Amino acid sequence: MNSMNFLQVLLALGAIVWICSRQLTWRPVDPARFWRGPLVFTIIGLASLSDTTTRITPVDLGLVVVELLLAAVAGAAMGRLARFRPATDEARRRTASSRRGSPDITTETRTGWLGLALWIGLIAVRIVLDVGSHQLGYELVSATGMIFIVVAVNRAVRALVISARLEHRTPAVA
Asked: What distance in Å separates the CA atoms of residue 40 and residue 73, rounded to the nearest whole number?
């Protein structure tokens, strides 16, 4: 394993731990920040995949589609599992003091233990697909960049579902 692969694996493990912790903590719902994670994960994933010299076969593409569909389904389920509560004063202060946050945060969300279980399930399926495809000689699914793409799809679909749910909960401001 070279230093670049080690760094990619370390980043992937860091992303997994980071998302696990976010499932259990109340986080301000800030539409301005919803898309930052999926965008960063997509950029890292595509950059990692651009270094891949793997020959891509139709089976590789089929496995990638299956994996991305599973990530999207898990993201949609996480979005549906998300619970909401009015934002605490602490959350409003923390978000308003952040240069990146919107000062008018009114809601917090978390998916809780069921969201964490879904996340761990997605990781387990990803590992099985990774090991199985690697043993069969299909390298695209086992590429480190695919981990980041899967996370990006999962987070993006989750954000879409939460955004849609919030729009139906909150009356439109005229």
From this structure: 21
**Percent of the chain at pLDDT exceeding 70:** 87
Q: What are phi and psi of 107, to 5 degrees?
A: -135, 145
Q: Who contacts 138 (Cβ-Cβ below 8 Å, separation ≥6)?
A: 57, 59, 60, 63
- Which SS3 state, helix, strand or coil, does residue 34 take? helix
Q: Are 49 and 4 in contact (CB under 8 A)?
A: no
Q: Tens digits of per-residue pLDDT, 99-153? A: 555 557 788 899 999 999 998 899 889 889 888 888 888 888 888 888 889 999 9
Are 135 and 63 within 8 A, CB to CB? no
Q: Tokens 């945060």, residue? A: 105
CA-closest candidate to residue 149, choices 38, 7, 33: 38
> Which DSSP string corresponds to 71-131?
HHHHHHHHHHH-EEEEPPHHHHHHHHHSTTS-TT--EEEE-HHHHHHHHHHHHHHHHHHHH
Q: Residue 24's pLDDT is what?
A: 85
Tokens of 116: 């964490």
Looking only at the bridges linking them, the beta strands covering 107-110 and 83-86 are antiparallel
Token output for 154: 């999962």
Classify residue 67 as exposed, middle or buried by CB count within 10 Å of its CB (0-12, 13-18, 19+). buried
